Amino acid sequence: MPAGGASTRLAQRAPRSAVAAAALLAHLLLLLLAPAGAVRTDLVGRWLAQPPAGVSEARPRALRLPPLEEAKADFVRAHPEYGYKGWLDKHWYDEVGLRMPRGGHYIDFTGSGLYTNSQLRAASQELATHLYANPHCTSPSSLLVDAELRAARDMVLAHFSADPSEYAVVFTRSATEALKIVGESFPWSAAPDWTPPRRVPAGGVNETDPPGHQTAGCGGFEQGAASERRSNFVYLRANHKSVLGVGAFARERGAGLACVDEAGMEAWLHSPPVSEVGGVDDGFATYSLAAFPAKDNYEGRLYPLDWIEKIHARSTRRHKWLVALDAAAHVPTHPLNLTEVKPDFVPISFYKMVGLPTGVGALVLKRSAAAALHIVYFGGGSVLDATAEGIWRMLMPLPEGLETGTTPFLDIIQLKHGFSILNGPMGGMHAINAHVSALREWGYAQLSQLRHSNGAPLLRIFGAHERGAHHQSGIFQFLVLRANGSAVAAPQVQDDASVASLHLRAGCDCNPGQCLFDLGILPEEERHRALSGDLDKPFITVMRPDANGTPRPVVLPTGSVRASLGSLSTFEDLYALVTFLRDTYAE
Question: Taking the model in full, what pTM does it have?
């Protein structure tokens, strides 16, 4: 597997788009015309648009990699856990490489997993030799599908070591739909003095705050006794926006919203518990929901799974706390054992795990939590019986009672072929995690050493890589910096990478909370950018106080670049990424 495309030079770049060129010109003019020291982007200390003082004196040598074959041999000797005992190197071309342009490197596994040609052939063979039909009757073809669906549910439960008497698998079209089920069905309780919000126009923009109000940042959460009868939705800033959408249901129904950062979550979970004082015990409990990702899809941080038990421990007799653990980005590269940790709701996406099929996800949920959900809509196979008069219905038992409409049964049947690769030649999730962790360790060591000739860093890498594999996954989220510290537009990096046959992703990766925080953009600034029609611009100019408190213009990037590893990532992929960044951007 050659590291083709990695030696692309600045002179070989694809032409810039008009938007990117205009943004770059504005950026350079601002750097030239602003007073000395004015153009900085050190808001909350996340990154700098100017090189730190003294870097030009150090002048560390530019990263020099040995030739690919030598570098890989050294890596494999140091990391025998790489490659599933030789299976990946032996079969990669036949399983994946045949579909990829020569010299191509796919490094966007958090966006989508890749399927193997073996599972594609197995799925095609199965569909060519079996007759499958709608499972909502008792014909032979329908009964065959029913048996396959039961087997698929059992397979998913076994994969996550979940007790079938405690957990159920509800098939959905995506992890997003799984979260939507939770949000719209959760038993939110409003405060006694709550009034419904003004309706949002169809396809419009909701007024989150009154005019002139500055949104508070994400921090901590204090649960007071006064909130005993009001639901709360506590969510980590680093959540995917599909989790943020759950908060739209909570807000619509009068629940309190609390956006927290990691420190805020820890502070809440270690604060004294709220005691039940007074009040009338009417036999009904108020339910609140806390949501966080096992692995955030932007920085790739891994969050403590012991939060689940600690959140449950905040429950009282009259106020119950449930947990939604977003595992969509986590489970493609990490094991999740639902015997050891017990979240109430776990949304997952199968194409992120095994590449094929798309359009199938699941909500793995506790049966006890399902009993608290308030199901309104019914239709299709979720209904055991119904009458037209009075809109009366009796739902199917769990899990079918939450699956409105006919499930994509032909797609669900194909899942076993992907899981057979994960648990067969790859050796299971622990082996996959070890493989990815080895690549991450080597990749971070190389990427963090990239420098310009003046000693300034080439990249600003986000996340917790320096804390090791227990805190950081195989995601590299970064900004490419020029020698003067200013950022290269993220879309330009993606365009350059595409010319070099590298598959990367640029933007905020559906994670606005952590992305905007890392880039230093305030919520109200992002809203103004969106309402002004400037979402396609790679930079934003905002005002920030300088050292003397005088407001000065600051240029901030509006997105960054993500390279993410997965079960089928190779050493060659990372080698190509490192050499591409060095050869294309180092000055």
Answer: 0.87
